[in-house]
Design a protein that fits this description.
Chains A, B, C, D: One of its GO terms (biological process) is canonical glycolysis. The structure is a homotetramer. Chain A contains 10 helices and 13 strands. Chain A is elongated and about 70 Å long. Chain A is 39% helix and 19% strand. In chain A, the strands form 3 sheets. Chain A has a 7-stranded mixed beta sheet, with helices on both faces. A 4-stranded parallel beta sheet of chain A has the order 7-8-6-9, with helices on both faces. The interface between A and D is large, with 42 and 42 residues.
């Protein structure tokens, strides 16, 4: 393969730029040409494509967001969009593509490969909810942004003897909540992977003030459970009489300069995706497992270690679901007071 | 005066600890003894008072919040509470008190002084809305926290071509919004001191996308105008068709390690309050104006340069209202594109 | 004036980019055209000049350094270089120039103006040592970078019971040292504007460990006095037996994202320089004094409030030297323990 | 085991406090009592020991350094010191001890265990050079501090077209240098695990300026190779004519608020050490390998997976040396330009 392209898709994540840089530089190092596609699959279909030079990515590694931009583009689920996209790529002589994004973005990569156009997925999302990798690009930065913010909220929480419910991103996975909760010594962490009893939450909170000498409290809540305002309302209804406040860290978790780990991880995964394309391989997603680079078929059978299978009814099934961080959640409970 | 005390009152602000440290160290330097009062006026009335040693404040300067804690205590508006407070202070032989907080807290200081117990106010609040000082302790840190967060949101805003309405604290004063907006190159800044026309806001925003080549936008909104969710709803109703998002920086603005400027300002103001008490002066608030230390009577006539006067109907009137940052707001408009 | 240019000169400082942005945007706002000159006076003489569009400065405000670059160019002290520079500017129809840099850079601006080509100086240096302004662009960021670093060194200093001598930039002015020392509660601050006795320094240090219950110490040293290694050697020779370490914060103080205050100050001063050029004024330097914009003749008599005069022997004399931060240095001594 | 103690030893590292917190809280969770030992083995021998309450560690997790302090204490290599230490511990009824520090500190733990007093080592050092663990506590924070500093130096390097040689800690291991170099896109990384030819270093550097369009360069140097000043001198002697500067990040790498990852890792390892002691196990060091908790005998044979063996001449031999980060170093070379 002599000419490849790269795009970013789905929600932006810190480190996506480092991954783009790695794809561009590694491809040039391997003697390939490399193109950038703006605005994800939308830009692919519309032909918003340009040739990368090695200097184009010189200062992007430390920048948050994605300078290739991202966009939702449901039309790419349809055959017509896919074929149009391939047509645009072929116009530039492009033979393979690296897709950096969440696992929704992997489906597009899979379709391209099915049509004979090799594509490789790179896991980029702050949520850490992609199967086939221990960590996603952006997760480490998001957790560090969260703990900085929670450390700040703790100052106020302490000063005013308040209970703060702090909502963090994570629709399906509580990883940000669990890590941030453990790393800030939060009193309670509420995640979608574990059931909770609002009465038990309130009982523990009130007991802290009444019997365990606590003077303030932080409860970290993953957005996949409910929003912070609702949770505070639920706590009040269940009898919590502490000075309750809701706050949502929201979009600040998505941005910011990537941490060292996200830059290194992105460099590693981006370069590995190029290695696979160079060998003509597609339909794969790269990841890191037990500190080693891995790659898996995006679609196939569980026996093939594929990330997803097609069920008989045509629906896509996750073969090995993202594992809940139950060990860390339990550790968090053992170390709080 | 040989023995003074210090308390923090109102919303916590970064740098309050540096101000407490300055009061403690300066008082000891001047040969006085100094006491701490926990939880503001509530702790004063309840006698939650302890003697400070010089080492007690050794590591607090770099910490956010207030380790003396703060509390609302409306009972202190009544004579009974004030007399009870003075009684508690006299039990410890305390002869004067430094009150660090917003201008609501100044009223208590004024009452104490009226009852023959000298008290001096030190301006501590992130809002920068206290009369008699160009800057309040905590403002500089809050603005820096705001620009870090807005820089992060800009990453996402750029990546997804969105318009973000970012709400920052400031009930009566738009200072945080104006400074943060200017320092991040925000497209529009909406503050309580300036009227706005939602149609003009939307017209400018849409014109940016349609005619001025803008691909995303940040609008900084002071909470005193309305909240971000409402503002987004208003924009939609007025015809904005961009991809609008609301986010509230909320309580993260209150916490965090104080900046150098807030630490220096707090040190300066705290030490000056001790100077005044040492001379037996009370009923004053300290401030910084044109880079010089100043102090003004809290209550009196405009001719006396007092911050507040009593109107005929008994209401408290601000003699020289906090000036709006209209020059900076105008500069912000001239430098945006 | 319809067409102006901007350059950065001398050591780079955080906020220079914000000043360039302000010059570009303000000029366009005022209906002028604006050009950028790369690499300071060297680029001027070599004709390394390009036209600015409003979008060229869109994302530079939050970046450290100067994207126009800077360079030493002693040749500009000679008439030949100056005339060549003017010739280059005139080729592009440029009628005035804004020079952002230290006061060394002001001399060039003065010469240009003497040759009939109006130039205005904007104070940009981390050292805060420029006459005619209370603060220079970059100082606030440098102090904040310094206190972050010193807070980190304090962690180690505490952990190991050590005395750290921390060297910060400042060849002629101790402002960074004084502010950083006060803001971190440093035990001693050594600056060029105050004499020191190494025996007294050691005596105080040893007394801290022996009699005042200190377990570690930080001494902040301005580079203008001597370097940290030397100072440690001097302390040892004078009998200090504590566990002494030298560290030099060095070049990290020059870089980094500018603080809110530096961005606002740079915006304000850059825009003001454009205002002056628009009125056809040159040979001036802008500044901020007592929170107000000011401008002064660069060269002239003391009566004209000029920053510099020509002495009879042809040497340049500073009319009103940068004032030492003796008040803050004294406050620092009163608040330490 | 009903009563254990914890100490920190060797160079301080961010996250040591989080590890102490984890030991204290986990021990209390398991129904044990837990004591703190100040100043490492020195404090043990001198009996500087106190009982921990659960609240004592409430706010330490986010703090850099070690609040238990650390100290060099070569006397502990002798039998007398070891027996005296055990005697002090037994006075308080302590039955086991957790030692947080570098692998030098492990030797003490091993000796205690040999004398029948179970001790477990927890890897705490920024250098990441401890056998038996993929990561040490403090490494992630140090790398992030390094990249922040190098990003700042890059601003200046770019502005002035300079080559900066940036020295980072790492006497035996180049891990900080490799990670920081890869994460900042440094042009060259010089580490003790790889030979270098100063002529090749200079050739590449000059080629960058002359043929590859580079305008500045960063070379990251591990202290184990030589210091930055020397390296610059070597480069000059080998013919480098670029504008060379040396800077040493030095002690700022040791301090600072720990990152999320260091807090989580420290919590995990500290708690695991308590688990081992609870089962009566000693003479072990805990670590993380392939994302799983592991523990190994500190001293023993290679077959037993022990970290160290005794050679016939009585010297201590490392069984499985810390592996060099050659893969990442190679990746760094492939992605630079």
């Amino acid at each position: 393969m002599k000419r490849i392209a790269v795009l970013t898709s789905g929600g932006d994540a810190p480190g996506m730029n480092a991954a783009v840089r790695a794809v561009v530089r590694k491809a040039i190092y391997e003697g390939m040409e490399v193109y950038g596609i703006n605005r994800g699959y939308a830009g692919m279909v519309e032909g918003d494509i340009f040739k990368f030079e090695t200097r184009d990515v010189t200062n992007i590694m430390s920048q948050g967001g994605t300078f290739l931009r991202s966009a939702r583009y449901p039309e790419f689920a349809k055959l017509e969009g896919q074929l149009k996209g391939i047509e645009q790529l072929k116009k530039h002589g492009i033979e393979g593509v690296v897709v950096i994004g969440g696992d929704g973005s992997y489906h597009g990569a899979m379709r391209l490969t099915e049509h004979g156009f090799p594509a490789v997925g790179v896991p980029g999302t702050i949520d850490n909810d992609i199967v086939g990798t221990d960590y996603t690009i952006g997760f480490d930065t998001a957790v560090n942004t969260a703990i900085e913010a929670i450390d700040k909220i703790s100052d106020t929480s302490y000063s005013h003897k308040r209970t703060f419910v702090v909502e963090v991103m994570g629709r399906h996975a509580g990883d940000i909540a669990v890590w941030a909760g453990l790393a800030t010594g939060a009193d309670q962490v509420i995640i979608p992977e574990e059931e909770f009893d609002i009465k038990a939450v309130v009982a523990r909170n009130m007991d802290g003030y009444e019997n365990r000498g606590k003077s303030h409290a932080i409860i970290v809540l993953a957005e996949g459970v409910t929003n912070a305002e609702n949770f505070v309302a639920m706590m009040k209804e269940a009898g919590d009489t502490s000075d309750l406040r809701a706050t949502n860290l929201g979009h600040i978790l998505r941005g910011g300069r990537p941490t060292a780990r996200d830059r290194v991880l992105a460099s590693w995964l981006g370069a590995h995706a190029v290695d696979l394309l160079k060998e003509g391989k597609g339909g794969l997603a790269v990841g890191i497992q037990n500190e080693e680079l891995v790659s898996y078929p995006i679609l196939g059978t569980a026996e093939e270690n594929a990330l997803f299978s097609l069920a008989e009814d045509g629906k896509i099934v996750v073969n090995t679901p993202h594992k809940a961080q139950t060990k860390l959640a339990q550790l968090s409970r053992e170390l709080r007071r």
